[in-house]
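Study this protein:
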Amino acid sequence: MLNPFSLAGKAILVTGASSGIGRAIAVSCSQMGATLIITGRNETRLSETYSMLEGDNHQQIPADLTNVTELDTLVERLPKLDGLVNNAGIAKPLVLQLTETEDVNEVLQINALVPIHLTRLVLQKKKLNKGASLVYISSINGNNCAYIGSSIYAASKSALTGFMKGVALELAPRGIRANCINPGMIESDLLKSGSIGQEELEKDRLKYPLKRYGKPEEVAYAAVYLLSDATQWITGSNLLIDGGYTLQ
């Protein structure tokens, strides 16, 4: 049977695959037949993700992508890719008046500069096959809305979206497409840690028309869609996954 969403025969790199959305994307891609190269800073958690992958011939390459040497080494070790998911990111809520230079640099580097440099390097090292798909995990924050205490995060994610649009135009003649996924709030380990009160979380969930936060696998399914041949005529787009939040 024809399955346009199959990833069989595709080699896909997922950054930030140690947990959360990145882990869900890696697992879902493996279930759809892809060969995965996963990377993340936490080697133990990356190995946990690796153990969840279905199929064979996957690779795990622990790396801190903010380190130039480790980033270069990762790219050198890559096979030819059919897909790249730039998922690694950081959320660091701080009111601007209380933000230090180090906070600004950290958020912008991880959320914007790392995917920019990784994309640049895979192109320069000719690591992308013709027809490859680049997926950037952005956010509704900075692109569709904003929150108090998220100005730097919003700046980093909107920068990523702007970068994606330029990349989509540059690479279109080679049949390589680039798209963003803009999720709303996703259930994560941070929400389960107790650092945010359950009553506060429940009030926030009710702001979503579907009355809940998203699940990591729901973002993963969107990534599979954009990585698959079903989206060969989609590039430069922002796929909104927010439970209706930005309708209001």
User: Anything to note?
Assistant: The chain has a mean pLDDT of 95.
